Amino acid sequence: MRKLLLLGVLLSSLCIPCEAQQKMRDVFLQMPDSLFPYLTQNNRLDFIDFIDSGMKAVVSNEFSGKSEMLSLTDEEVTLQVSSALKVKMRLMPVNEAVDSCRQVICMVMTYGEANPESKIEVYSVSWKPLDTSKYLSLPHEPYVADFMETPSEGLCLRQMNTLDAIADEEQKVETPWLKNIEWKQ
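The structure corresponding to this sequence follows.
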């Protein structure tokens, strides 16, 4: 009888929903290597160890380059993966539980240096891909994205354009639209 009771307690503890807020460091460490081949599990562990020690968080990535964790909070992480790839991830609130949690991961990947462009993806906290359009209404034009200051508000998108791809920095102009995209909870 005791064994059955103990087994019941153990099984019920596995089914406890994710009511507590997840922390970005934990979610980041659980990210599958296959999702982000630049960085291994050891790279991600090193990032967090360096940040916790107050050191500059730079690691050698899988493509023989250097990657740096620029910031880490309970809700967000920012990585300079290479000179041409910056990644920001933020835990965003949702009304309906996804994988028994009321948070999802919104990942903004910005590619390019001279003419950057962003791509946005949304994942459950267990790193299952989700339909981004359920959470954000994104334009069809190329854009550069960043999170708004208030975590649950959404993203700010701007369109970058150049007069001439070969032109110097002084000739670059920012096109007229700047959009705040609300997060659909």
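The beta strands are 57-60, 66-72, 76-82, 85-98, 101-111, 117-124, 129-130, 144-147, 154-162, 172-182.
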